[in-house]
Specification:
The protein is mostly helical and 469 residues long. It has helices at 6-21, 26-45, 49-68, 73-107, 125-141, 150-158, 171-179, 186-217, 226-257, 275-279, 284-298, 305-323, 327-348, 352-355, 358-381, 385-397, 403-430, 439-457.
Length: 469
């Protein structure tokens, strides 16, 4: 039941009607949303309800223990971290480490025989685990009010718009919205519907159609030229951004219709001029989470340049590992860690081209950072490090532009141009220069175009890329 399915549309209508019927009673609204969230998650695999319910009860009880027995607050926090990270490790990483241990032992001639470890990865486990951890961490720090209401806490953990792919909300921002009465205004309706329509357009029209350029190149036994690989990387940059930010837009729109304000997760990341700027714009809920709960506790930038570089690199390796138990993700994270370290070292030298790019330097910085990002996507999208190496080598030794690459380029530009023009038109409609009398007809044109592209020319994917993480 993905956001881009008829099933979700019918599900949300039923939830919204029930939600509005009890609009005068916040506790009843929260109960409706908890039950709806569990139904939403059970639609994937009802067996994993035990996981989300059990971990919710565990952190709820540990939170109460931290309040009632403050002397042992740190011990309860450590128990919470051990529970959450332990569950994440067992489901997501245990098989990866076992396979690599066996491979290492075979390399030295020991050759242990260990039964194959096949575990189904629960959808969204990295997202709701990290979100849940913010409660006990911030409770230990004294930055969040404890909650004794189990329904409120359960809703914080499983709120269905955020459950599969975030954004990762913090306890101190989402829990107050859950506790307090919510007033749904006409502005909530307008913003929510726009975010849903725009997110569906980015996902169904742009991302799913770009997948038709990307997937063949990264399929096993593909044969082509380096120019086709480069076009596929450009297409994947557009695909992953529109797929993930499209999900986020829909999630924010659905939450907005329910009276919740959810944080922005993307801020035009491909306009970044350097690696640090990119991570202030891309998947901001994850990057700020790791900044606050990993980078700063490691020492941040307080202990000198070289330890700052170490902390940056370690944090980015964890970013890669968060995305999946595969060497491709680890190398991708390490690659971005190296970029951040190099940028920090260059910035320490007070180089004006690094610290203040200026009028001419900013466009160059954006072009350069975009291509560095695309190079990183090669590792992220590849099925293995060997495939990444082979495809990268084609760009260098067999670029060979031809008719196939030209056709892919035209297709890519067509999809991206439609998205850029629609966004520009929407911004024009919102401009203060447009008279209010023109809002309705111009808005109708925008929504008509969105419907035309999304419904009549959309792709066929029934999943979101980041749901697998």
């Amino acid at each position: 039941m993905y956001f881009n399915s008829i099933g979700f549309f019918l599900f949300f209508i039923a939830v919204y009607v029930a939600y509005r019927l009890v609009s005068s009673w916040t506790k009843a609204q929260n109960l409706v949303l908890v039950l709806a969230s569990y139904v939403f998650y059970a639609a994937w695999d009802w067996r994993f309800l035990f996981l989300i319910v059990g971990s919710t009860l565990g952190d709820y009880w540990l939170g109460l223990c931290m309040v009632r027995r403050p002397t042992y607050k740190k011990r309860f926090l450590l128990a919470s971290l051990a529970m959450n990270l332990g569950v994440l490790f067992m489901f997501k990483y245990f098989g990866f480490f076992v396979q690599n241990f066996v491979a290492l032992m075979q390399q030295v001639g020991l050759g242990p025989t260990i039964p194959a470890w096949e575990v189904i990865l629960p959808l969204g486990i990295s997202f709701f685990t990290f979100q849940k951890m913010t409660y006990t961490i911030e409770l230990h720090r004294g930055n969040v009010e404890p909650t004794a209401d189990l329904v409120d806490f359960a809703l914080f953990v499983c709120f269905f718009p955020l459950l599969l792919s975030g954004p990762i909300e913090r306890a101190k921002t989402l829990l107050p919205q859950i506790r307090n009465p919510r007033l749904i205004t006409s502005e909530h309706g307008r913003e929510g519907l726009w975010l849903i329509a725009w997110g569906l357009f980015k996902k169904v029209y742009v991302a799913d159609n770009l997948a038709q350029i990307v997937d063949p190149v990264f399929a096993p036994n593909w044969h082509g030229t380096g120019s086709e690989v480069l076009i596929a990387l450009y297409a994947y940059a557009g695909q992953i951004y529109c797929d993930f930010s499209g999900y986020t837009d829909i999630a924010r729109g659905v939450a907005k219709l329910l009276g919740f304000d959810v944080r922005l997760n993307f801020n035009l990341p491909y306009l970044a001029t350097n690696p640090s700027d990119f991570w202030r714009r891309w998947h901001m809920s994850l990057s700020t989470w790791l900044r606050d709960y990993v980078y700063i506790p490691l020492g941040g930038s307080r202990e000198g340049l070289w330890k700052t570089c170490r902390n940056l690199f370690v944090t980015m390796v964890l970013v890669g590992l968060w995305h999946g138990a595969a060497w491709t993700f680890i190398v991708w994270g390490a690659y971005h860690g190296v970029l951040l370290v190099l940028h920090r070292l260059a910035s320490a030298g007070k180089n004006p081209w690094i610290t203040d790019l200026g009028f001419v330097g900013r466009p160059l910085g954006m072009v350069g950072m975009f291509h560095l990002t695309c190079l990183g996507w090669l590792f992220f999208r590849a099925q293995s490090l060997g495939q990444a190496s082979d495809l990268g080598s084609l760009i260098v030794v067999h670029f060979a532009p031809g008719a196939a690459a030209l056709q892919l380029s035209v297709t890519l530009l067509g999809y991206l141009s439609a998205a850029i023009l629609l966004m520009a038109f929407h911004r024009l409609v919102q401009s203060s220069r447009v008279p209010r009398s023109a809002y309705v007809p111009l808005g109708a044109v925008v929504y008509g175009l969105l419907f035309y592209f999304t419904v009549l020319h959309g792709g066929v994917s029934d999943s979101f890329i980041y749901a697998q993480f």
